[in-house]
Design a protein that fits this description.
Elements (H helix, E strand, L loop, with lengths): L11 H11 L12 H4 L10 H7 L11 H6 L4 H14 L1 H6 L8 H10 L5 H15 L12 H4 L5 E2 L12 E2 L22 H22 L1
Antiparallel strand pairs: 1-2
Helix pairs in contact: 1-8, 7-8
Length: 217
């Protein structure tokens, strides 16, 4: 069986504090093993923090912050989603077995790590704790695939509501063939108790719609 390369910190709690600190400082040109000391993390274990950020896709191989770091490290819904997607890629084998690995039980994840690496129990636990620490900064509720509710029954993409709350959904069919255009018309009538007003209104509307249909055929 091919061994999977995992990474871990001996101090996951300090790693969390380090990332929180990064959220409050400017984006450095590079984050090397010496950088943590410059922002208050002088312990020897902190020298390994940049390697973990590289593993998670937040730094490139030279230590320069990636676009994911620049756009996602400070959080916000979109930023957290970017970080979440990067973590999914970094831990792809884990998410393939446990799609909700970010909130799955630690014991199962430890078993997976042990079964797919040469790490012992203690180090496997550190791998999982490090992973869970990274997950705190990502949003895993969004995916690249549209949900059934968004897509509709046949995988068609659906745009939701207009600014007035009217159903202005436009379906872009995946099937080849003609193009269908839906036109939504919003009309209003002053409140009245006279039924003749409504009868006249709907009769006029039906007449104009018929003219539109006849003109487009």
């Amino acid at each position: 069986m091919t061994s999977i390369r995992f990474i871990y910190s001996h101090a996951p709690g300090k790693l969390e504090e380090f990332i929180q600190k990064l959220q409050s400082v400017g984006t450095p040109e590079k984050i090397t093993s010496e950088y943590p000391k410059s922002i208050g993390f002088g312990a020897s274990h902190a020298r390994g923090f940049p390697g973990i950020l590289k593993y998670a896709g937040l730094l490139d191989s030279s230590g320069q912050p990636t676009d994911i770091y620049k756009k996602g490290i400070r959080g916000g819904q979109q930023g957290r989603a970017l970080v979440g997607n990067a973590i999914r890629q970094a831990y792809k084998p884990l998410f393939e077995i446990y799609p909700n690995a970010d909130r799955h039980s630690d014991s199962d994840l430890v078993t997976f790590v042990k079964s797919n690496s040469n790490l012992d129990e203690e180090k496997s636990k550190l791998v999982v704790r490090t992973f869970k620490t990274l997950c705190k900064f990502g949003d895993f509720s969004t995916t690249n695939e549209p949900s059934n509710e968004e897509a509709g029954e046949d995988g068609d993409h659906v745009d939701d509501m207009d600014s007035n709350g009217n159903d202005s959904r436009r379906r872009h069919s995946n099937n080849s063939g003609g193009v269908v255009i839906n036109v939504n018309i919003s009309l209003s009538v002053d409140a009245t108790s006279d039924p003749e007003v409504y009868d006249a209104f709907f009769a006029a509307m039906a007449r104009h719609l018929k003219d539109l249909m006849d003109g487009g055929s």
